[in-house]
Write a structure and sequence with these properties.
Blueprint: E1 2-4, E2 7-9, E3 21-25, H1 42-46, H2 48-56, E4 60-64, H3 79-89, E5 94-96, H4 102-110, E6 116-119, H5 134-137, H6 141-146, E7 152-155, H7 166-170, E8 177-179, H8 181-191, E9 201-205, H9 210-222, E10 228-231, H10 233-242, H11 248-257, H12 264-272, E11 277-278, E12 282-287, E13 290-295, E14 302-306, H13 308-319, E15 323-327, H14 340-351, E16 355-359, H15 361-364, E17 378-381, H16 384-391, H17 397-410
Parallel strand pairs: 3-4, 3-7, 4-6, 5-6, 7-8, 9-10, 9-15, 10-11, 15-16, 16-17
Antiparallel strand pairs: 1-2, 12-13, 12-14
Helix pairs in contact: 10-12, 13-14
Length: 411
């Protein structure tokens, strides 16, 4: 069992999962090109360990997942996903072009031990697009048609755990349930954030999603979780302006166009409350195509990255931390000239003694080949929106539902 706040989450080690019929919710929602071909299969690879472990224990495993949303270009069948899962498992995964109809149910009933099926895109069922409480979703056609065919439900889809949809929250009320290995790793990593013994905790927050990030900072300050909050990207610019620093008209115009200036009162309130927020002392800027470094007090160019002095200061804080959370880059890392700030904080995190949680793909793209990742002390999160909500202090429906399953099974 994993404790997260007041929730107790069962794992695959806590319930009997041998020679059973298992319904496994995964998240293999992948980017596709204009022809509907998968162009990044990293989410598919992430679940291979959980699928293999369940199949190797003599279970028959039925996989369910979504892909895109109805009306979007990436709303496609899961047939190609099945082929990729087969490839990485090195065993056949049967694709079923159905979800809850007679054909799907018959295939599930016939599935023998060690067999693996992937049902088609679960969002073909309109109920899966509805957000509602578990008590409502347990009564959906999706749950009522499929749950009686299974012994156990396993949720391995952390990236979808912020959704309160039938495949996420309905089945735990109908079946003995547990977190899969991907979900377990995510939850264990995030639990470190709330462990009072792991201090100091450093949050390095950058990127362009400023509205989301200020929610995270407000929660960290309210719950007194962070010992230091190091800012970069547009987040740093917001707090610099809130502190009264003149970033010049060019940068102010960019912030205004993005709707970020409206957040100044919230940023100022956080600063006045004594929140441990650090802002850059210098920036890397672009002036007529040339790259320069300027002190934060005398900015004349367009800000593109934190400066080298700021990177050194941030790195010194990070090296002494027990827990480091990295979300969002320090600069415009799409341009190689402005990657150094993100590389510096990433390098300091990986070389430090603390436990490192990396959220979001942008920071991963700053990794150099010579940067070694120790999986025992570094966790790369798969969950964009889920991680955001968790850090913002909101409860994740998937975890609440799994916790309710524990309550139900002990009644």
């Amino acid at each position: 069992m994993i404790k997260v706040g007041d929730l107790t989450i069962p794992t695959m080690d806590d319930i009997d999962i041998r020679s059973k019929k298992v319904l496994l919710r995964i998240d293999i929602n992948s980017p596709v090109d204009e022809n509907g071909k998968i162009i990044d299969d990293s989410r598919i690879k992430a679940h291979i360990g959980t699928i293999k472990e369940l199949a190797d224990k003599g279970n028959s495993v039925v996989l369910i997942s979504h892909q895109g949303r109805p009306g979007d270009k990436d709303f496609i069948s899961l047939e190609e996903h099945a082929k990729l899962i087969s490839k990485y498992l090195d065993r056949e995964v049967v694709f079923v072009e159905d979800v809850i109809g007679p054909y799907a149910r018959e295939m599930i009933k016939k599935l023998e031990n060690n067999g693996i099926l992937l049902l088609d895109n679960i969002r073909l069922i309109s109920e899966e697009l509805i957000e509602a409480p578990p008590q409502q979703h347990v009564k959906t056609f999706l749950v009522r048609k499929l749950a009686p065919l299974f012994d156990v439900y396993v949720n391995d889809a952390f990236a979808t755990s912020h959704r309160s949809q039938p495949s996420i929250v309905g089945f735990p009320l109908a079946l003995p349930s547990a977190a899969g290995r991907v979900m377990e790793r995510e939850v264990l990593a995030l639990a470190r954030i709330f462990n009072a013994e792991d201090t100091p905790k450093i949050f390095t927050l950058g990127g362009g999603k400023v509205h989301d990030t200020i929610r995270i900072i407000e929660n960290l300050v309210r719950k007194r979780i962070a010992d230091r909050i190091l800012t970069g990207g547009l987040v740093a610019e917001l707090f610099s302006v809130a502190k009264g620093i003149n970033l010049n008209p060019k940068n102010m115009e960019i912030l205004e166009k993005l709707g970020i200036l409206s957040l100044i009162p919230r940023a100022r309130k956080l600063l006045l409350s004594g929140a441990p927020i650090e802002i850059p002392v210098d920036y890397k800027v672009e002036i007529n195509g040339n790259v320069m470094e300027e002190p934060a007090s005398k900015i004349t160019g367009v800000i593109k990255d934190i400066g080298s002095t700021t990177a050194e200061i941030y790195s010194s804080f990070i090296k002494d931390a027990k827990v480091v959370v990295l979300r969002g880059p320090m600069g415009v890392i799409e341009d190689e000239r402005f990657k150094s700030g993100s590389k510096s904080v990433l390098k300091a995190s990986l070389e430090g003694q603390g436990y490192v949680i990396i959220g979001g793909g942008h920071m991963i793209s700053a990794l150099d080949k010579d940067m070694k990742i120790d999986s025992s002390k570094v966790h790369i999160s798969t969950g964009g929106g889920a991680l955001l909500l968790f850090l913002s202090g909101e409860r994740l429906p998937a975890l609440e539902a799994l916790s309710m399953s524990v309550v139900n099974s002990s009644d």
